[in-house]
Amino acid sequence: MPRPRTHDEALRVRLLDRAGELLSAEGASALSLRRLAADAGTSTTAVYSLFGGKPALVRELYVEAFRRLGSHLRAVRPTGDPATDLVALGIAYRESARTSPHLYGVMFGGAIPGFEPDDDATEQARAALAPLMEVITTGTTRGVFHDDATTMTMGCWGIVHGLVSLELRGNLPPGLDVPAMYEQALRAHTRGWTVAPP
Predict the structure, then answer these.
(1) How far is CA 78 from the centre of its chain?
(2) Each residue of 97-123: pLDDT tens digit?
(3) Which residues make beta-bridge pairs with 194?
């Protein structure tokens, strides 16, 4: 009977989540492989077996963060109305950040000083945002939106990223209906690019 695998996908995800939590809560100096292994209830041998070392672990953490974001965005079902879909993607972006807040800084917050993603990791990060570009491209092709796709993509990303950053850092006013605020802000922002009917 074969021995059960102990260095499996569940352990890989657990290690990546714990690495993100350490970075988020205590900073880059807290991320040692010995500490990570102990916190995850495994050995440094397991960490090396799965990732090959700290640089590869950090790269995988970056890729995993964008993979999760991409999964949330791809789960949005197109409605046929690009403006509505754009709002839904913004809501999905927020949900991704709220689901894995410890990974948000890995993607955008400079949580790993000196880390530079290689070309493949950068391409995977861009691929995570592909659903946003696809909806915007569809809207411009159909004449729903009047600006170019790149400008709109960066504008939409910027507003949602800004709101999420404020929310995760606790900088939104108390008592605010945050989900409603996101939807209203996104709809108002999207209307600025929507072609008015004749």
Answers:
(1) 20
(2) 999 999 998 988 677 888 889 999 999
(3) 145
